């Protein structure tokens, strides 16, 4: 009887060792499977000619109702072209979450991110699949994507993401408040910006800020260092990838300009005003309600103002530039949304079809760009007559910034843009007056950035 | 009986006579049975504690990013921690502040509230419930609500302070006030510790208070010589668990910084790194910057510090707990 034989055998040393070995193997398999990130492909998939029905998961960061609806409309176009591929879109996902999912082996088939700073980490670690083979197999012409945009979507010779619309930054100004202050045109230099900011600022009887002419406090909405230093032509990293903030005079100049305006307002007053600024992506946005006369923001604000039914009378212009660098006027910061296939994608072939469609199909690109008010990332889409955004002079500012040869971005780094985190902490202390020696502080940031970059190598 | 016979055949001088095969088999079966019953616990212990612990120590000597294969890098992560990490010492200072200020404040506040509610003659149940309720609020929701209440521009706290002529601080938007604001949040949510103290206080024999009163002890002496010795194990428990929680303080600091800053992508520890705790630095390194090996090194240090704190507290506590000194070891 097998059962009794098994029980008898259970007591022998040999059987015990075997049982231990089996248990160990099972435990190892269990642990291994728990730790695996599922790098390969699995399950049914749609190869080039395979039209078996498949459902893929797509995570993206859009969260506003009109943005989610717009993504849905473009996915409907995709489903029309590929009826056997159903896309399950999950909105409002963050990079933190997708990183955890990749590590846990539960990554979506396709992921889109607002934060191109993570591309370096994703490419170098293999978190996102290298798309080069698919691009070559499908003869996708990368020449249709501007060079600057190509640069922030690849790292270390690996193209692990594609650009999925871009964000360019410029100056929004309130025409009504400008007229009331006797200002006839938007500022073109940083000196003019500071002077206009002072004229436009209105204080409450208790001395607190009622209307800020401009918000120089870093961290308020899109007033970030990376959006500021482009006005001085700042370059974050040297050609060898090491930190450049202590060497490039643009950073010290930008910080000095920013601090002088902060000091004019008073850091404590600005901190209090900032604390009272409602959510950036709500209809109560301070610019939309008239509490902020000028602000740096992305092109998407034009769509938000429309969708929020804000009555603000506004105009747009390129960001003012350093007084000594007039040639930079018209340029700005470009930061792109990126899209790729995370490691562990269960249907990478179908996922690639979606990535290719969303990033290179002119109708898809212009439809989404028009719907959510983002800048298209392919030249055919930029020049497409169906791009209605180009007819809006307020939006055209951002298309011009995008095309400007001086427009720059924050380069990808293998540590997920740790240099920006380090710089952000430094800048916060600087604007609070905690950094006595600016140049020494910038040099210290260089050392920190370089040490952090070496840590992961 | 065969066992006795078998034992009797051994030489008289043998100190530990080997049992007969049947007895050995029974012992073996017993051991296996015990092992079988213990197996779920042992497997859980091995998989969820020993394995992660060993892996964490191993990964702390690698350049792991938890995605591509890790390579051994020796002590590089530990050297980076001591020499180059720009945030680490501020994170250590912040966590140290929370352990030294917030934890004792929370223990004392919970003890004070428990003593007051223990003496209430009327409405005791209502007040105990009211003081305990905040502990049921999820930490994220509670923190978001707290940051909104303490908003220096539109929050009700500063508006109320303004009514009595006090110019309220910037709270979560001030590097000087952010940790005190987090401490207020911790005091508000200390209901669980309060309930444990309350149970201990209600357990102190009333006769001891009566005897102390007859001996002329004043309220402070009654607390010092009757209450405190009786509840000292609970004080020790609250302190040890509080210190460990303080060392691991993460959620509230992170959420408060993000909500106050209004930008989840901005630099952590807003304002000016004042809420950047040691675990937050660990999280940022491991999950935002792909430095999982370094994060493991930070975790190892955190583990060792937690263990050292606990051992010191336990050792010191054994001296002041009178009940322990009277006990005879088994």
From TrEMBL, chain A:
This is ABC transporter substrate-binding protein. Residues 1-34 form the signal peptide. PROSITE patterns: PROKAR_LIPOPROTEIN. Keywords: Signal, Transport. It comes from the Bacteria. Belongs to the bacterial solute-binding protein 1 family. The keyword Ribosomal protein does not apply. It comes from Streptacidiphilus cavernicola. The keyword Signal applies. It holds the Pfam family SBP_bac_1.
UniProtKB/TrEMBL annotation, chain B:
Residues 10-22 have a biased composition (Low complexity). The chain crosses the membrane at residues 34-59, 96-118, 130-152, 181-204, 225-250, 292-314. Pfam families: BPD_transp_1. Residues 92-313 form the ABC transmembrane type-1 domain. SUPFAM superfamilies: MalF N-terminal region-like, MetI-like. It is a multi-pass membrane protein. The keyword Ligase does not apply. Its main location: membrane. Keywords: Cell membrane, Membrane, Transmembrane, Transmembrane helix, Transport. InterPro entries: ABC_transporter_permease, MalF_N, MetI-like, MetI-like_sf. The keyword Disulfide bond does not apply. It comes from the Bacteria. It is found in: Cell membrane. Belongs to the binding-protein-dependent transport system permease family. This is Carbohydrate ABC transporter permease. The lineage of its organism: Bacteria, Bacillati, Actinomycetota, Actinomycetes, Kitasatosporales.
């Amino acid at each position: 009887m097998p059962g009794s034989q098994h029980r008898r055998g259970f007591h022998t040393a040999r059987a015990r060792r075997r049982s231990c070995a089996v248990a160990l193997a099972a435990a190892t398999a269990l642990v291994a499977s728990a730790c695996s990130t599922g790098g390969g492909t699995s399950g049914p998939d749609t190869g080039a000619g395979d039209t078996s029905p498949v459902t893929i998961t797509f995570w993206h960061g859009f969260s506003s109702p009109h943005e989610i609806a717009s993504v849905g409309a473009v996915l409907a176009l995709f489903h029309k072209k590929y009826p056997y591929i159903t896309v399950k879109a999950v909105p409002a996902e963050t990079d933190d979450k997708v990183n955890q999912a990749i590590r846990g082996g539960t990554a979506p088939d396709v992921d889109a991110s607002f934060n191109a700073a993570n591309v370096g980490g994703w490419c170098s670690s293999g978190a996102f699949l290298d798309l080069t083979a698919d691009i070559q197999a499908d003869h996708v012409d990368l020449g249709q994507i501007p060079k600057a945009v190509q640069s922030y979507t690849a790292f270390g010779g690996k193209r692990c993401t594609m650009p999925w619309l871009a964000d360019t930054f410029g100056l929004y100004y309130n025409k009504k408040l400008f007229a009331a202050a006797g200002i006839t045109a938007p500022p073109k230099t940083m000196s003019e910006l500071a002077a206009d900011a002072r004229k436009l600022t209105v204080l409450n009887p208790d001395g607190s800020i009622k209307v800020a002419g401009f918000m120089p406090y870093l961290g308020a909405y899109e007033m970030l260092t990376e959006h500021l230093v482009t006005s001085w032509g700042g370059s974050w990293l040297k050609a060898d990838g090491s930190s450049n903030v202590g060497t490039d005079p643009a950073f010290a100049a930008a910080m000095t300009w920013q601090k002088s305006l902060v000091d004019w307002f008073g850091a404590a007053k600005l901190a209090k005003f900032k604390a009272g600024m409602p959510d950036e992506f709500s209809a109560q946005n301070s610019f939309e309600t008239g509490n902020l006369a000028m602000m740096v923001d992305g092109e998407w604000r034009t769509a938000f103002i429309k969708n929020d039914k804000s009555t603000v009378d506004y105009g747009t212009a390129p960001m003012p530039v350093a007084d000594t660098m007039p040639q930079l006027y018209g340029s700005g910061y470009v930061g792109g949304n990126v899209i790729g296939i995370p490691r562990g994608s269960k249907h990478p072939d179908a996922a690639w079809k979606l990535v290719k469609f969303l990033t290179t199909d002119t109708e898809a690109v212009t439809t989404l760009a028009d719907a959510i008010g983002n800048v298209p990332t392919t030249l055919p889409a930029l020049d497409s007559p169906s791009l209605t955004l180009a007819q809006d002079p307020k939006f055209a500012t951002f298309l011009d910034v995008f095309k400007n040869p001086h427009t720059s971005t924050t380069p990808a780094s293998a540590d997920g843009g740790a240099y920006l985190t380090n710089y952000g902490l430094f800048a916060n202390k600087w604007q609070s007056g905690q950094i006595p020696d600016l140049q020494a502080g910038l040099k210290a940031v260089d050392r920190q950035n370089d040490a952090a970059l070496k840590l992961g190598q | 009986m065969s066992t006795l016979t078998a034992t009797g055949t051994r030489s008289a001088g043998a100190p530990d006579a080997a049992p007969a095969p049947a007895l050995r088999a029974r012992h073996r079966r017993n051991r296996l049975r015990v092992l079988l019953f213990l197996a779920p616990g042992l497997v859980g212990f091995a998989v969820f504690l020993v394995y992660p612990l060993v892996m964490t120590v191993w990964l702390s000597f690698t350049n792991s990013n938890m995605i591509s294969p890790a390579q051994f890098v020796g002590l590089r992560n530990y050297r980076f921690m001591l020499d180059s990490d720009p945030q680490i010492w501020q994170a250590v200072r912040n966590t140290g502040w929370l352990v030294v200020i917030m934890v004792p404040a929370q223990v004392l506040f919970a003890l004070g509230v428990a003593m007051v509610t223990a003496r209430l003659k009327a409405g005791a149940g209502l007040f105990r419930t009211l003081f305990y309720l905040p502990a049921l609020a999820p930490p994220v929701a509670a923190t978001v609500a707290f940051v909104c209440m303490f908003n220096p521009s539109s929050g009700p706290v500063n508006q109320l302070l303004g009514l009595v002529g006090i110019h309220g601080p910037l709270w979560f938007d001030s590097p000087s006030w952010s940790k005190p604001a987090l401490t207020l949040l911790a005091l508000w949510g200390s209901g669980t510790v309060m309930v444990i103290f309350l149970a201990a206080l209600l357990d102190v024999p009333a006769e001891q208070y009566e005897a102390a009163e007859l001996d002329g002890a004043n309220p402070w002496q009654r607390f010092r010589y009757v209450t405190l010795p009786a509840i000292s194990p609970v004080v020790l428990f609250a302190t040890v668990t509080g210190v460990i929680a303080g060392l691991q303080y993460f959620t509230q600091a992170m959420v408060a910084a993000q909500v106050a800053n209004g930008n989840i992508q901005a630099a952590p520890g807003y304002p000016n790194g004042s809420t950047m705790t040691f675990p937050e630095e660990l999280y940022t390194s491991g999950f935002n910057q792909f430095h999982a090996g370094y994060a493991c090194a930070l975790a190892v240090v955190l583990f060792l510090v937690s263990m050292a704190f606990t051992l010191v507290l336990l050792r010191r506590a054994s001296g002041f707990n009178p009940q322990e000194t009277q006990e005879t070891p088994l």
